[in-house]
Automatic annotation (TrEMBL):
It catalyses: orotidine 5'-phosphate + H(+) = UMP + CO2. Its EC number is 4.1.1.23. This is Orotidine 5'-phosphate decarboxylase. Catalyzes the decarboxylation of orotidine 5'-monophosphate (OMP) to uridine 5'-monophosphate (UMP). Pathway: Pyrimidine metabolism; UMP biosynthesis via de novo pathway; UMP from orotate: step 2/2. The active site is at residues 60, 62, 65. GO terms for biological process: 'de novo' pyrimidine nucleobase biosynthetic process; 'de novo' UMP biosynthetic process. It comes from Pseudohalioglobus lutimaris. The lineage of its organism: Bacteria, Pseudomonadati, Pseudomonadota, Gammaproteobacteria, Cellvibrionales. Substrate binds at residues 11, 33, 60-69, 119, 180, 189, 209-210. The keyword Lyase applies. PANTHER family: OROTIDINE 5'-PHOSPHATE DECARBOXYLASE (PTHR32119:SF2). Homodimer. GO terms for cellular component: cytosol. It holds the Pfam family OMPdecase.
């Protein structure tokens, strides 16, 4: 298991609760993920604030646009000094190759990750959109393409991790949201596993939002995750 596999999703509408959470947690226990809501409201200053407190930041903006635009966006993310950034694999080969090439000249390139099928989506959701593949089949197809394009890994559900690990090998990062502590509400997520099951399936990184941030005591919830993983005494 990765030394520090937990990434806490800091999904808040303003800087104050995000920074308060960062003060309560510690970089030894987790990395932090900044997504669309927080970044749109607070921008690069908030990313810098979290980095100043010692956290690696995953900038989860899931870029999906024409190749030239996405290349510029990942270059901008690299300039923020983030640890990980992502693009939608559904943007296709030329878009992903442009993103990977854009980072080649960066002095400290972030990990570049392709989003396969959102963990909030079920087979039925995909069928309704005209896809004939199951979520699992589509994840495998998009992961193969992502790897061919030279990216470092994929966002997927931990449910797909065993097949992905077999297909993509040990060095391809599997970043898995849709994680819930036992008994917690899945909410809008559809492809969900517990932290222990996700790691047992071969996930490298667990993205955990509401099971930690929505808990009465987020630090205690994060420590519970580590106890479940056996990564904290
Ligand atoms: O497929 C995906 C890709 C990204 N996410 C993001 O992860 C967190 C999950 O939050 P929870 O509160 O643990 O459900 C959230 O920021 C999503 O934007 C994802 O869930 N699925």
């Amino acid at each position: 298991m990765n030394e520090n596999p937990v990434i806490v999703a800091v999904d808040f509408p303003s800087a104050e609760p995000a920074l308060a959470l960062a003060e309560r947690l510690s970089p030894e226990l987790c990395r932090l993920k900044v997504g669309k809501e927080l970044f749109t409201r607070c921008g690069p200053a908030l990313v810098a604030g979290l980095q100043d407190r010692g956290f690696d930041v995953f900038l989860d903006l899931k870029f999906h646009d024409i190749p030239n635009t996405v290349a510029g966006a990942v270059r901008a993310a690299a300039d923020l000094g983030v640890w990980m950034v992502n693009v939608h694999a559904a943007g296709g080969r030329r878009m992903m190759v442009a993103a990977a090439e854009a980072l080649q000249s960066s002095s400290h390139a972030p990990l570049l990750i392709g989003v396969t099928v959102l963990t909030s989506m079920s087979d039925e959701d995909l069928r309704e959109m005209g896809y004939t593949e199951s979520a699992g089949q589509r994840v495998l197809r998009l992961a193969a393409l992502t790897r061919e394009c030279g990216l470092d890994g994929v966002v997927c559900s931990a449910m797909e991790a065993p097949e992905l690990r077999a297909q993509c090998g040990p060095d391809f990062s599997l970043v898995t949201p849709g994680i819930r502590l036992a008994g917690d509400d899945a909410g809008d997520q559809r492809r969900v596993l517990t932290p222990a099951d996700a790691i047992a399936n071969g996930a490298d990184y667990l993205v955990i939002g509401r099971s930690v941030t929505g808990a009465a005591d987020p630090l205690e919830a994060l420590q519970r995750v580590h106890r479940e993983l056996g990564s904290l005494a």
